[in-house]
Amino acid sequence: MKKLFTLASLVALTFASCAKEETKSVAEGEGRVTISCEVATDVVETRANVSCTTPSKADFDLTIEGVDHTYTAYYDDIAVFEEDSYLHLGTYTATVKAGDVTEEGYDAAAFAGSQEFEVTARQETSVTITATIINALVRVDVTEDFKRYFPGGHSLKLTTEAGNEFDVSAQTEPIFFAPGAFTISGTAVKQSAESGAEGATVALPEYKHDAAEAQHYYTVKFDVESAGNAKLIITLNDTPVEEVEIEQELNDNSK
């Protein structure tokens, strides 16, 4: 899903003398700049569409920096760029940002994008920037076989590298978090004994992913294979990453 809007920047190069004293040679060395920004919600490693709140043009800040010369201009509200603008000839990089990647949670997408461009004297330069999701995303799920093997229920917790914790026992939407490590831990309750005693609570093996990347969607799934010796299988994006024999390795703990 993409949204397209146009930002006409009001960037003006500051000279030592005032505008009315500007020399003809300097004025002729400027070119007009217009900036278009596309908001893209595409992510890697998922077959599902990501649904999230996308920013409007007023949510973006804009930074323009010189590449082949010293120049930096920062604006915290793109609404000030809705008029024609001129930059002195040269190479620049325009960067747009919206949202805070450190504010982790559901529907907490942050976006950023950059594009290098060249300004030519007395010509218009059109710049298109694609702002993409700069969070990593994760969703935790359990299979029906897992639920049948642990009919007493389960509790799962996701911890990000920043130390934020989320209950993902019944997660339906992805969590947006700062790229880096994340850990999933939890417990599950076995079937009640024939004597009527409550089912044992077992600690599930902790799963840690060390390097979640920006614009990547990670699906961690807990499954149970009950043919023969029962196994707990953890998959990441449908690829098995851990298998544990339940009876031998999982620790039984009294409720």
Fill in the keyword field for this structure:
single chain; 255 residues; mainly beta; Immunoglobulin-like; 2 domains; 8-stranded mixed β-sheet; 6-stranded mixed β-sheet; 19 strands
Assess the beta-strand content as a share of residues: over 45%
What profile does the largest beta sheet have? 8 strands, mixed
- Considering DSSP H and I runs of 4 or more, what fraction of the residues is helical? under 10%
Q: With helices defined by DSSP (H or I, 4 residues minimum), what is the helix count?
A: 3
Q: Give the CATH level 1 class of the largest domain.
A: Mainly Beta
The helix-and-strand class reads mainly beta
Low-pLDDT windows of residues: 4-26
Structure explained in plain terms:
The protein is mainly β and 255 residues long. It folds into two domains: 2-133, Carboxypeptidase-like, regulatory domain (Immunoglobulin-like); 136-253, Immunoglobulin-like (Sandwich). The protein has three helices and 19 strands. The chain has helices spanning 24-27, 144-149, 246-249; strands spanning 2-7, 30-40, 61-66, 72-75, 86-88, 90-98, 105-106, 111-119, 124-133, 136-142, 154-160, 165-167, 175-177, 180-189, 201-212, 217-225, 231-236, 239-245, 251-253. The strands form three sheets. Strands 1, 2, 3, 4, 5, 6, 8 and 9 form an eight-stranded mixed beta sheet that branches. It has a six-stranded mixed beta sheet with strand order 7-13-10-16-17-18. A hairpin with a 5-residue loop joins strand 16 and strand 17. The longest helix is centred in the middle third of the chain and has 6 residues, at 144-149. It is rod-shaped. Mean pLDDT is 84; it is low at 4-26.
